[in-house]
Amino acid sequence: MNSSSLTLPESAREEQLTVPPSWQLVLNSFVEFQLEHRGLSQGTVRNHMCFLRRFAKHVSSEDADKPAQLTVANVDSFLLTYALPRGRNYACGATSSIRVFLRYLALDGQVVAELATQVPRTQTYALARLPRGIDWEDVLGVLIAMPRDDAAGRRNYAILMLLSLYGLRAGDVATLRLDDVHWRDAKIAFRMGKSGRHLTLPLIDPVGDALTDYIQRDRARCEYREVFLSLQHPYHPLTRRWITQVAQAALDRGGVNRVRGMAAHTFRHSFATQLVRRGVRLKTVADCLGHNSTETTFQYTKLAVEDLRSVSLDPREVLR
């Protein structure tokens, strides 16, 4: 696989992150090494590159004109002035990617091996943050606002129905194949990319109707078996990033505030929170989401804050 086939996330391209040629050459080699020799997925390498291009732009503006000139001071400067102000999770991702990059440079003989060990580790805590969901009424509003009078609208509406009514990840929607929809048995099967599980769920009528409308009227007849394809020739399956962009546009159209880069997961979080608030057992919610453990699902119980407030005591009563 050629490193040039790996594209950066949309957010990085929008900001036009350019780095010096001396850095770009090494970053390209890093990408090729991670894909060819370490066997990492393109998604993982994209995430690394999203941090590393920002890192390269920052340190090259100081005194590190090329990766071989990197010092601990360069790393600290980037973390303190750029990464940490963007939050603990961002800093954790940045330090992890920089550490991987420095190990590669050490293996290539460009820096000393000890440099990677000098990158600080940012501590994160399980369940420390609330899932980024929206009210279920807002989800329904987004679905209602989706136009379905053309091919793009019908395709995107089917995508949104899968995201919102099954709580899928963008990648799980992108990999859905025609053979995974069992019409006679009224079942639909998903390959959960993150956990590796195969999940079979009932094909509910609203989703079935949306899929039928898109497949029969608009989906191209071609060699690809993925359900969701581009609408113009040459046809190709939609990527995870494309699914995310569909979700982003839908939320924006519906006037719903969203966290950047979390559009598809906004529907997933909303789906899970709705189930928990309806009293569905955590084990059942975990199975629906494809979680390997209910510990991951437990985060959604934190969102029932209003339910807890409705039964809480008045502080003045406690202090009497």
Description:
It is a single chain. The protein is mostly helical. It folds into two domains: 3-117, Orthogonal Bundle (DNA polymerase, domain 1); 136-308, Orthogonal Bundle (hpI Integrase, Chain A), CATH 1.10.443. It has 16 helices and three strands. Strand 2 (187-191) and strand 3 form a beta hairpin. Helix 2 runs antiparallel to helix 3 (42-60), helix 8 packs antiparallel against helix 10 (205-217) and helix 8 crosses helix 12 (263-277). Mean pLDDT is 82; it is low at 1-15 and 308-315.
The poorly predicted ranges are 1-15, 308-315
Distance between the termini: 71 Å
What is the CATH topology classification name of the largest domain? Answer: hpI Integrase, Chain A
**Secondary structure tally, helices:** 16
Query: Based on helices, strands and strand pairing, what is the structural class?
Result: mainly alpha
**Number of E-state strands:** 3
Please summarize the sheet with the most strands: 3 strands, antiparallel
* Overall morphology: elongated
Q: What is the top-level CATH class of the largest domain? A: Mainly Alpha
Radius of gyration: 23 Å
Mean pLDDT: 82
Q: Walk across the major sheet and give the strand order.
A: 1-2-3
Order of helices and strands: HHHHHHHHHEEEHHHHHHH
What portion of residues belong to β-strands?
Answer: under 5%
Overall domain count? 2
Summarize the structure.
The protein is 54% helix and 4% strand. With 320 residues, it is mainly α. It has 2 domains: 3-117, DNA polymerase, domain 1, CATH 1.10.150; 136-308, hpI Integrase, Chain A.
